[in-house]
């Protein structure tokens, strides 16, 4: 069983930056593929970014490519989402997700993930 806890959200002005963290419990975190998803008010949850267990492969939604960077520190059982040049449309609840997966690549679909954090609010004001 893995527990995921997000932190680092909050209110920021457009153009600003935030870094989200997702701390995971469990000794096998280093073999977990991880992802970030978000859900804006009145919308379905959508994919944001994903990273392989080694950190060697990452993938981003077109809407955040070039602005967001996902990384991980397996020694600290933590993944990060650095969000730069934030826009009001980035306002959402952001969720961290994980799954035991030792393949070389990332996972892009919600149904591929077994564990989810409780979510954290990110609000970008115009």
Name the shape in a single word. Answer: globular
Low-confidence stretches: none
As a whole number of angstroms, the C-alpha radius of gyration is 13 Å
Strand percentage: over 45%
Give a description of the structure.
The chain is mainly β. Helices cover 0% and strands 48% of the residues. The protein contains no helices and eleven strands. A hairpin with a 6-residue loop joins β5 and β6. The N and C termini lie far apart (40 Å).
Structure, briefly:
With 126 residues, the chain is mainly β. The protein has strands spanning 4-7, 10-13, 18-24, 32-39, 46-51, 58-60, 68-73, 78-83, 92-100, 115-116, 120-125. It is built from no helices and eleven strands.
Q: What is the topology?
A:
Layout: E1 4-7, E2 10-13, E3 18-24, E4 32-39, E5 46-51, E6 58-60, E7 68-73, E8 78-83, E9 92-100, E10 115-116, E11 120-125
Parallel strand pairs: 2-11
Antiparallel strand pairs: 1-3, 3-8, 4-5, 4-9, 5-6, 7-8, 9-10, 9-11
Give short descriptive properties of this protein.
four-stranded antiparallel sheet; 48% strand; 126 residues; seven-stranded mixed sheet; globular; mainly beta
């Amino acid at each position: 069983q893995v527990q995921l806890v997000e932190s680092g959200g909050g209110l920021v002005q457009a153009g600003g930056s935030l870094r989200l963290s997702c701390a995971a419990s469990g000794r096998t975190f280093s073999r977990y593929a991880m992802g970030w998803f978000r859900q804006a008010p009145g919308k379905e949850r959508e994919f944001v970014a994903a990273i392989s267990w080694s950190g060697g492969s990452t993938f981003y939604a077109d809407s955040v490519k070039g602005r967001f960077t996902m990384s991980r520190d397996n020694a600290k059982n933590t993944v990060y989402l650095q969000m730069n040049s934030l826009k009001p449309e980035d306002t959402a609840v952001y969720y961290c997700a994980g799954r035991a997966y030792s393949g070389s690549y990332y996972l892009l679909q919600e149904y591929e993930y077994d564990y989810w954090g409780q979510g954290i609010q990110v609000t970008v004001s115009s």
